[in-house]
């Protein structure tokens, strides 16, 4: 008996997510439809997180990166985090001079660990400031500039911060502040 290859159903076909940065009514419905399709795919696959990225190349060495991560949060509510150098201002897309680093935050017992991708800078170029549960992160080296405000899961003790940087990755460990009460 010969087995035939199963043809993928339409819902299983992976196509790139199109992002319409226009603000016309058609663009809004198309973008909403694509987002709903993505959430449907996540539900079918049982995924809790999906990331999509892309790059735009311009003349010379000019490049722009864009992307987003969709996470299913508490109560099944989707959370969307955008990153990259392409933003949607009021009229069309633009490439920003300051990049927003990709950041992950982990709650590890009595510490909060922040991992940030900041390639192209030196460790001495990186600055951070912590105010209770907000981390202000920035770096500047020649033409590379990064900046991001990160909401931490709880208040932390700024004076306990330990940072290490290698291969474009910053790891920041901070002790949690004692619970008030």
Strand order of the largest sheet: 6-7-12-11
Q: How many strands, what sense, and barrel or not for the largest sheet?
A: 4 strands, antiparallel
- Rg, rounded, reads 20 Å
Number of strands: 12
**Percentage of helical residues?**
10-25%
Can you walk me through this structure?
Helix content is 12%, strand content 43%. By secondary structure, it is mainly beta. The protein folds into 2 domains: 11-96, no CATH class; 97-181, Immunoglobulin-like (Sandwich). The strands form 4 sheets. A 4-stranded antiparallel sheet has the order 6-7-12-11, with no helix packed on it. Strands 1-2-3 form a 3-stranded antiparallel sheet, with no helix packed on it. Strands 8-9-10 form a 3-stranded antiparallel sheet, with no helix packed on it. The protein is flat, with a radius of gyration of 20 Å.
